[in-house]
Design goal:
Number of strands: 11
CATH topology of the largest domain: Jelly Rolls
Largest sheet: 6 strands, antiparallel
Helix content: 40-55%
Oligomer: single chain
Length: 274
């Protein structure tokens, strides 16, 4: 796995690039909790398998794809040796990169071919043929930068709301946001949902939960300390959010953490569904 930073002008929109090749002795399924990150997967290997949340005996295989914002977890596996690049966009970055409001993509996966047609196929081949990861990351800087440069941004009040939610890590009330932007609460909620894909309150919860997951991944603190640091008013509140967003308890999620930023493994999907 190789990590790369985007060009400085893209930092508000792109968190990082991650190039990988992975060969597993046995099939592996990962739990992907929701966060403020929207992935763009440029696939060089076997299709990525995404399991049906209601019936884990069913799945869909994807090549290169992206998603909208999620407020639920997804179970993801591979159907063989995998490799490619994951672009970690912020939700705002996805809104700009895709050049469209995100409400129709909420909790959905869509193929890059369906979004960009021939341009998607050209980009995948150019990245595959590039001689090194640094060259691939430079190509992505160019492609993402050119799309963002021509994109029409959301309304200033929506941008302000997004930035305030991110900088406070979801620890700001809707009443405060309404007072700051000068819109009615109903109009603000509707516009943020339309442009960003999630209403402000849900987005705040996802940001707070995403911060907790980040702390778990890096091994920084006990669960009770993580809950306090992320603004949960008690452990029961933290446990409810983890169960809702990840499908397991906080301790189960932590125990499933794989080494070297490998994500959260799912060992027994039938047991997990219960």
């Amino acid at each position: 796995m190789t990590l790369g930073a985007p060009a400085s002008a893209l930092r508000p929109y792109v968190r990082e690039y991650c190039g990988w090749f992975e060969h597993m002795a046995a099939p592996l399924c990962r739990r992907e909790p929701p966060s403020e990150i929207i992935p763009v997967i440029i696939n060089f290997g076997a299709p990525v398998r995404v399991f049906d949340g209601a019936d884990q005996e069913r799945w869909t295989d994807y090549d290169s794809f992206t998603t909208g914002p999620y407020d639920r977890f997804v179970l993801v596996g591979s159907s063989g040796p995998s490799g490619g690049i994951q672009v970690n966009l912020t939700i705002l970055g996805a809104r700009m990169f895709l050049g469209q409001p995100l409400h129709e993509l909420t909790n959905r996966i869509v193929g890059l071919d369906d979004l960009f047609g021939r341009d998607a196929r050209r980009l995948v081949m150019e990245l595959y043929d590039a001689p090194a990861w640094d060259a691939r990351f430079a190509i992505l800087d160019r492609e993402i930068g050119s799309r963002i440069a021509i994109a029409r941004p959301p309304a200033p009040a929506v941008l302000w709301t997004w930035r305030r939610l991110v900088e406070t890590r979801g620890r700001i009330g809707i009443g405060t946001l309404v007072g700051e932007v000068g819109w009615s609460q109903k109009h603000l909620i509707a516009q943020v949902r339309e442009q960003i894909g999630l209403p402000p309150k849900t987005l705040a919860r996802v940001l707070r939960f995403g911060r907790a997951v980040q702390l778990m991944r890096t091994g920084r603190g006990r669960l009770v300390d993580i809950a306090n640091d992320c603004g949960y008013y008690d452990q029961a509140h933290f446990t409810r959010d983890v169960r809702e967003f990840a499908g397991v308890t906080p301790s189960q999620l932590l125990e499933s953490l794989m080494p070297d930023q490998g994500g959260f493994a799912v060992d027994d999907m039938n047991r997990d569904a219960r």
